[in-house]
Amino acid sequence: MTRVRVDLNISLDGFATTADQTPDNPFGQDWGRLTTAYVGTRTFRERVLHDTSGAGTTGVDDEYAQRYFEAVGAEIMGAGMFGLHEHGDDPEWKGWWEDEPPFRVPVFILTHTPRPSIEMKGGTVFHFVEASPEEALARAVAVADGGDVRIGGGPSTVREFLRAGLVDDLHVAITPILLGQGIRLWDDLRGLEAGYDVTTEAAPSGITHITFRRESRG
Amino acid sequence: MTRVRVDLNISLDGFATTADQTPDNPFGQDWGRLTTAYVGTRTFRERVLHDTSGAGTTGVDDEYAQRYFEAVGAEIMGAGMFGLHEHGDDPEWKGWWEDEPPFRVPVFILTHTPRPSIEMKGGTVFHFVEASPEEALARAVAVADGGDVRIGGGPSTVREFLRAGLVDDLHVAITPILLGQGIRLWDDLRGLEAGYDVTTEAAPSGITHITFRRESRG
């Protein structure tokens, strides 16, 4: 049964994006601080950085990182996460992940200006679709080959799917820093916990892993 | 050495107050949901409800509840936490805690309309002062007899003390529910974690206890 999943890193004050980017530091210092534990895992190093040396942490944070990549058959993301807000004018733009992105499945990018699909190395194919959350999800499920569908981000896209009641599994990794600015994941989600089992696990890194999980609606 | 301490219950989306009060339910349902784990501890039952039967939980949440009451020599709170916003016109108003409040120390209530002090049973004395955070803290330290000073709340008052750099120990108990409305603890506190050791502990109840602690500044 296909499950719809979300995993995000957020700050203690609920921000899932950072706002301190500069021309010299295009991701900003805050992004590094927000994702330190995840980026330090062995799974991230292998899967995203193609580092097969075995370096990286293997504790609680790595267990969540492994689950992040398990059994995903298709991905959906917003235009912003793919970089279309900055690079939409460039017809050659292929996202932030170089030639071999870590997804290895069909990825549906929600945009009001669709463009031709792009096939990348390693199994990732980017499709650009103008669609509601429900429509995009139906298309993703159709090609997921029985695997799960992940809503990758950013937080505004995730919130649309949460508000539409489409998400079965939500995992947030909370880093105990206060960013004070950016896009909040939790806005306008009063009562989201109803209908979910919520579990909490603290990692030695200081990260709090909170999981909302519900029975699949079939 | 006197330490300045804060303990608050907040929701996952950062709200430290609730907004669903009705005439029939003056605390609202959300307040109960936000404080279930704390109110269920043996320490709360003994100290606040005067229940000496030994009922209540004795795990992680109770350890934090015990620490809440340990070694406090004076307390500071905002006018709202004392109830002056609703009951300020009543010269006989003595707060929400009946005849024998759980503080048992001098309590300074910050208000623009001071009134005479009130001595309660059990050692609590309410003083009403118009003072800056620094001035109120100096007065509290002077009478704390070497004990700590707690900034009791509400969240706006706590944030004033945090922003002024006056707090040595901040403990928040995060309940995994989304309230979507109220007063946020974390607003305008970007970078607060600098200068603190931050630790995280997940309780079996689902509460996440996060502690910011720094060396006393003397």
Automatic annotation (TrEMBL), chains A, B:
Pfam families tied to this protein: RibD_C (PF01872)
Molecular function in Gene Ontology: 5-amino-6-(5-phosphoribosylamino)uracil reductase activity
Occurrences of domain Bacterial bifunctional deaminase-reductase C-terminal (ranges): 4-188
GO process annotations (BP): riboflavin biosynthetic process
SUPFAM superfamilies: Dihydrofolate reductase-like
Top-level division of the source organism's lineage: Bacteria
Official protein name in the record: Dihydrofolate reductase family protein
Naturally occurring in which organism (per UniProt): Microbacterium rhizomatis
